[in-house]
Each structure stands twice: as structure tokens, then as C-alpha cells.
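Re: that chain you flagged

S.,

Sorry for the slow reply, it's been a week of failed gels. I finally had a moment to sit down with the sequence you sent. For the record, here it is as I used it:
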Amino acid sequence: PGDLYEAIATNSQGNFIIRVREMMPKRPMTYDEALEDVIKATEENKAKALASTAVEGWVSQIAEGSTTLQSTAEENNYTVNSLEPLTRTQSFNVRINGNTVPAARDLLTSAFDIQEVGTVIGPVVSDLDKAVYMVRLQGMGDADLELFDTLKDTTENRLLLEKQRALLEEYEANLMTQANIQEFLNEEETVSTEEATDPEGDGEGTAR
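Prediction finished late last night. Pasting the C-alpha cells below so you have them in one place:
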């Protein structure tokens, strides 16, 4: 109790920091306790599967030119939401109408896979989100080459530093393994680490 959850919890209401107030004794759930959650999860999975099938059909019709994304949304009473260009920081917390989108990472990943402006893809689903999405690419902006070079150099330097540190640690470990360090027993006697670790071995006797 009192510990904070390591990550920030995110849902449709926003971002939250979780702190443990009380820990209940661990015990198996009863059938009645689990039943409601099982039914809810089953219904959600079934609904997502049906929605995914419908979206797949709509995307095919849009690709064939027999309908458009806007008309499909109007016929089914859905809303087409547009995202303005996002900065790298904003991409970690995408919001639509003030609400955080749990499937934001999957949506952005799918959008970057689109090669032609105006193309519609779907269904896009996420384990973090109950909704099923279609994504249309509105446009392509010019790449920020200066930012790319900065991030590239920073990443390469960090990886190089980590590699150098690992090699140094390995080198020091090998030195310690191979070294025959003399340990002083008293003013006149010394013994090597090999003899100290293997007193009954074939090594030489104590040096004086």
C-alpha cells in the first residue's frame, strides 16, 4: 500500500496516476464474480468482430469507387474526425474532441503505412480500445530533416556509449578473472588468488 503504479494509466477520460490504497488477500474469483466480466468481454469481442467485418466491406467499396468515406459515415450515423499535424510529443497523447484515443499508436502506425493521399484503410483495431477505425490519409507534409538528423545523432551516440560501456565492463571482468592477485596474510607471507581458491590444487606453495 502506498506504492505508485509504474506507468500512467490512460483511458477515454484522460491520463491517471494510480496509487495502491489497500491490498486485499489473494483468492480465486467465484463463478458469480467472474460471470459478469466474462459476459462483458465476450460481448465486446463479438461487437468488435462484427464491426471489423463491416469496416472491411466499406473499405473495399471505397477502394472500388462505389462510395466514399463521408457518405459511408453519414449512412451509418458515424462521425469523421480529422487530426491536425502532430508533433512528436503530441503523437504520444492523441486526442479527438478532447478525449484521449487509446488506439492512437495503432492509428498512427497504420496511417504511416499509407502511400497515397486519399487512400482509406481498415479495420484498425487495438486491444486498448473498444472502437474499430477506418483511416484516410489527408496529406503528406515535408519531413523535418533537421529534427531527423538531431534524433539520429542522439540515438547513435547513446548506442555507441552503451556499447563502449559494455566492452569496458567485459574487459575489466576478464582482467579480474585472469589476474593472479597476491593477498597478504601477514607481514611475511602472501598467497595468490589461485591458491586461495584452490588450496589443495597443484599450484605452488606459499611464497615468502
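What I noticed first: The chain has five helices and eight strands.

Talk soon,
D.
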